[in-house]
Amino acid sequence: MAGVAFQCESIQEAEVICNAVNRYGRVVLRAEGVDLRNYAPANSEGAGFGWDAVQRAARDMGKGTITHMSVRMAEAIRLALESRAENGANYDRADTAAQLATRMSACIRHAQQKGK
Q1: How far apart, in whole angstroms, are the C-alpha atoms of residue 43 and residue 20?
Q2: Is 49 helix (H, G, I), strand (E, B) or coil?
Q3: Rounded CA gap, 89 and 97, in Å?
Q4: Which residues pair with residue 67 across a beta bridge?
Q5: Which of 20, 40, 70, 94 is most enclosed, with most CB atoms within 10 A?
Q6: Can you tell me the distance from the alpha carbon of 53 to that of 43, in angstroms, rounded to the nearest whole number?
């Protein structure tokens, strides 16, 4: 399967992604009892990874370059963005998170179509 390529278009977008990923891991996943060290176990789609790998990918997006990641990694970031969009107290940041989640979904679909 092809990987996902994503680029932030501003510093604010990169900050929203990092904030969403950090909050999702610290609050939502812990509340659900998810083992952050083994967030995505290895399976037929690829190697496993912990939430720290998702956080590194989110930080890499702030460098202004295209970030390449697996579909599973992109899905994890998309979930964090959707959570931020739905539960964000700051409207502007929540709106940005919703827009980023939509863009990430489009990148995921594009990668999945290339991989077929």
Answers
A1: 26
A2: strand
A3: 12
A4: 6
A5: 20
A6: 17
Confidence of residue 90 (pLDDT cuts 50, 70, 90): confident
Residue 89: Cβ within 10 Å count? 6
Q: In angstroms, rounded to a whole number, what is the distance separating the alpha carbons of residues 39 and 9?
A: 28
Q: Distance (Å, rounded) from C-alpha 3 to C-alpha 46?
A: 11
42: confidence class by pLDDT, cuts 50, 70, 90: confident
d(CA 46, CA 75): 14
Residue 114: Cβ-neighbour burial (10 angstroms; 0-12, 13-18, 19+): exposed
| Angstrom distance (rounded) from CA 32 to CA 56 | 22
- Statement: residue 61 has pLDDT above 60: yes
Place of tokens 């739905």: 86
Enter the pTM of the model: 0.91
| Average pLDDT of the chain, as a whole number | 91
